[in-house]
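re: ur question from earlier - yeah i can do the single chain one, its not a big deal. heres the input i used so u can compare w yours
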Amino acid sequence: MTHDFKDLIRLFADCFAEQYNTCLVAGGQEPEYLPATPEQPQHRIIFAHDYFRSALHEVSHWCVAGAERRLLPDFGYWYAPDGRDAEQQRTFEQVEVRPQALEWLFCAAAAHPFRVSLDNLSGEETDPAPFEQAVRQQLLSYLEDGVPERPARFIQALVDTYRGGQPLQPAEFLRD
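and the output i got, formated as C-alpha cells:
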C-alpha cells in the first residue's frame, strides 16, 4: 500500500479546512503549528520533510489542542529539543501521551506502522516502558470511552481510504 503525504493533506482538508480554517502543509524543516494572521489567513499545521508519520503526529497534536490553544504558535506548548535530561524527558512524555495515542489510532486507520517515540536520541537515557504503557492505556481509554469528534472524523477518513471502511478493533492494540 502506498502512503503518500499528499493524501493526508487532501483528507485533512476534506475533514477540517472549511470548519476550522486549517490546512496541513508539507515540507517544514521542523514541525510547527502557526495560527492564522492577516498575511496568512489560514491556520497551518506544518509537518517535517513530507514524512507521512510526521503529518499524522502533527495532526494528533492539533486534535488534542483546544480552541484557545489553536490560536497560539505551537499551541503554546513548551518544547525542549532532542538532548533532554531525565526531568525534561518526563515533562515531554506527559505532554505526548494523548497525541501519541491518537497518532497510533491514525496509523492503524491508515494501515501504517506505529512505534512510540521518545524523541530524545541524544538525551539522557530513560526507561521507555512506562511511557509506552501510558500511551497504550490512553489509546485503550479512547476506544472504550470514545474518541473525541475531531480525531474520530479524521480516523474515519483514514479508515475509508486505507482500510476500505473496515473499522478499528480494540484487539488490534492488545498485542505487542
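The longest helix spans residues 86-109. not sure if urs matches, ping me
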